[in-house]
Amino acid sequence: MGLSACGGSDEGSSTSGETSTAAAAEGTSTVTIDGQDQSVEGTVVCSSMGGNMNIAIGDATTGIGAVVSEGDEPSVVSVGLGNVNGVTLGYQSGVNQGEATVQKDGDTYTISGTATGVDMANPMQPVNKPFEIEVTCP
User: How many secondary structure helices (H) and strands (E) does the chain include?
Assistant: First the structure.
């Protein structure tokens, strides 16, 4: 059906509808840190590697990344939330800082927990922020 819509490109509304379908096929995401929507723009890329699902949202410099184990009951390996208000936030399993869980429903992952970081203005005081990532892989 997608091919016939592309063939009918002489209609503006068909083209717009096809663009929306293509955007949905690329994956969707919502990222919230400390209760604030982060409005991460860019594509969602999910790739399987070494028994893990690598999830990237946005571009290389301002994007968000997560690694979760594969399977129906995955666990969180790591999360990189980037720089939020001058603090680089993240989660890494096994280092006893922060916590994170993941729930999987089909191709949709909901990753939530507490990320930690260091504010260089006060490096001796760790920063902890709650986060939630909801991402649908293409």
Answer: 2, 10
CB atoms within 10 A of CB 46: 18
- The answer to whether residues 14 and 4 touch, using CB atoms and an 8 Å cutoff, is no
Non-local (6+) Cβ contacts of 99 within 8 A are 91, 113, 114
CA 121 to chain CA centroid, nearest Å: 28
* pTM, entire model: 0.78
Residue 133's alpha-carbon distances to 5, 21, 101, 124, 125, in angstroms, are 33, 22, 11, 28, 25
Q: What domains can you pick out in the chain, each with its CATH number? A: 29-136 (2.40.128)
Identity of residue 85: N
- Torsion on CA atoms 110, 111, 114, 119, rounded to nearest 10: -110
Note the pLDDT tens digit of each residue in 74-94.
Answer: 999 999 999 888 899 999 999
27 contacts 137 by C-beta, under 8 angstroms: yes
